[in-house]
Amino acid sequence: MKQYASMTHAEQKAEYDRLLNEYRAFCDQHLSLDMSRGKPSNEQLELSMPMLDVLHGQHDMRAEGGVDIRNYGQLDGIPEVKRIFADLLEVEPDNIMVGGNSSLNMMFDCINWAEALGIMGCTPWAKLDKVKFLCPVPGYDRHFSICELFGIEMINIPMKEDGPDMDLVREYVENDDSVKGIWCVPKYSNPTGITYSDDVVRAFAALKPAAKDFRIFWDNAYCVHHLSDTPDQLLNIFTACKEQGSEDLVYEFTSSSKISFSGAGIAVVAASKANMADLKSKRTIQTIGPNKVVQLMHARYFHTADGIREHMKKHRALIEPKFNVVLDAFDKELSELGIASYTRPNGGYFISFDTMPGCASRVGELCKQAGVVLTTVGATFPYGKDPEDKNIRVAPTFPSIEELSQAVTLFCLCVKMASLEKLMNA
Amino acid sequence: MKQYASMTHAEQKAEYDRLLNEYRAFCDQHLSLDMSRGKPSNEQLELSMPMLDVLHGQHDMRAEGGVDIRNYGQLDGIPEVKRIFADLLEVEPDNIMVGGNSSLNMMFDCINWAEALGIMGCTPWAKLDKVKFLCPVPGYDRHFSICELFGIEMINIPMKEDGPDMDLVREYVENDDSVKGIWCVPKYSNPTGITYSDDVVRAFAALKPAAKDFRIFWDNAYCVHHLSDTPDQLLNIFTACKEQGSEDLVYEFTSSSKISFSGAGIAVVAASKANMADLKSKRTIQTIGPNKVVQLMHARYFHTADGIREHMKKHRALIEPKFNVVLDAFDKELSELGIASYTRPNGGYFISFDTMPGCASRVGELCKQAGVVLTTVGATFPYGKDPEDKNIRVAPTFPSIEELSQAVTLFCLCVKMASLEKLMNA
Lengths: 426, 426
Description:
14 helices, 426 residues, transferase (chains A, B), AspAT_Ic (chains A, B), three-stranded antiparallel beta sheet, 2 domains, L-aspartate:2-oxoglutarate aminotransferase activity (chains A, B), Aspartate Aminotransferase, domain 2, alpha/beta, Aspartate Aminotransferase, domain 1
């Protein structure tokens, strides 16, 4: 197939008319598919159903250490759950605090506390004229929404092949004390799927921030969410920080939302001793303790970090074919046309898709008209504004293979149409 | 028995020496009892064990309306749980938002949001020079801790027989726009056990605050926690507010922490339409949704508000004898001595005990030396400072009857000793 840009106007027109007919046929099918969010499918949720039975008929409701998990207390979580997450994140259990079901909630709270109370005795951000966060783009819309709510100014940082542009990060962080944080999804990044290189992780650890209360929000959501026999390796940022004496730079987060149940998982924060003391000084006033029945269910079902790693193979078996359906379609339909690029991740929940500049919104529009809802185009950028209007986050996990095949066929069609419209009007 | 104050010094000395011998015998027993917190006992927790089995072997994981409770979403809770709590609090389900397991967490968040983001467009409290809360005393230490953390100045409001001194409340609220809130436990109050009269509730509803963002934190923790066949009746504050057009004044909270499991309950906030929209505008950024497996367990176990009311009778059967052990001992040992007064609640978790002024800390000290830990004396007042050093919160639910008998015998002994020490040194 000829690249679209090399076609004559007449060829483009003919191709477009052909596509338009196909598109109309799609519209006549009245599809109704939602590919907007990174949600696990029903089959994935079924994998953890035995977890709901694990306390059935049990009489021993005590966690390690003897605490009755049905009663108040155990602010930072039960020991067995702390150990599992400590193993997954390669930290000590003392550096783990277990929360409710949402790691987003824990990130939000860290920022809310920083705004209202300040980090380790620093001035509360709400009292400052200006607070800024660095946002590697494309990134996760829910991170950006938190900043937007608190009026935190967001600065786009381009993502490179191996992580954020660290020269730019360093420039901002080390010279501007109103820069208080950066959002990172360091492994199987949302949405690009890339994993930060060791050099990038070391560059983070080596930052000398102008602001004492600058924190790296290290959202390691996909730490065990592999889609490959040769999974990506992420250097442990706390190890890198130890070499620099900079362990207080990092708040790390993860959860079991995409391991057990998105609607009933366990979230944790990992942090240095000093950060943990600071976070606990707030948390201990906020609550008497998290839901520990859910914790015991997880502990007695998964037992260990290895138990979780084994379980994740079952998720992979369900997810990988879906990624392949999408990627195969992209390869077949789009790879030779010179109108798109896309990532081929080793893990995580997303494929990041770039159209020609200025085409992404139109693709979203065309898909929606034909009954397929994508992640809102632009959402992968702060303020919902993709400056080049080209990035689309593709979330293949929730639909069935059949639905996905339909949706991706339509998607490719819409990409072609939007590209031709652009080229013909250029 | 003669009142202690009417005794001669010699009689007091003789009585004290006798008590001291008894006290020494107690110390030799090396007791180790914790009466510090309002925790349910093991037997109470056992009552809800079938709730853990209710999803066993179930395949229908959809809540009313069709949402899969294992997946993301349903920010404000599943319909069946909203309906149960709406019934309990006598509001509409639309006025209910379900959170995690801790109503304290929801109160904290409301204040944290007000501090960092502001209520309904008002200036965030963190930007103001001074923020004050009214604190009916004695009250709940964890409410006060939140204010202390945020640097909110607390003003003591004396509790009367039927609720806070409303003349004083009105004086502050209507004339000082730095007064932003008041803590209330309107039913079976912590620790006094009293329930606000209809007049008091109406006086709250009729407040015309100087501050637009003044809110009543209506912690209805013990709404169904009766200890009597003639339970107290609390006027619905939203009904009273409707008459005044003041529904935006109130955030109401409750939870199932002392209905099902303290370590795995469900918390809710109830609020007016405008408040709910404001709270949700924050909550929707904070999380994708609460733990809904726990919600479905509650819904399928309790079914309705009446299901909860029936269940609470079982709690009463376990708790009431414990309150009686304490009250009987107080009646027998102390009522004639003119050295103490105490409440006789129709519900809730506490008995509020007043020593002679200046004696409470000494009672706490003596009890602790003999191995019985009480709620930290002073904790029922802001900043842990009881100006008269007389109030002690007695929490009878957690210990066994046998332990409680020992503890209360010791307690009475310590009250007598501390009183005599005071009288002899006067």
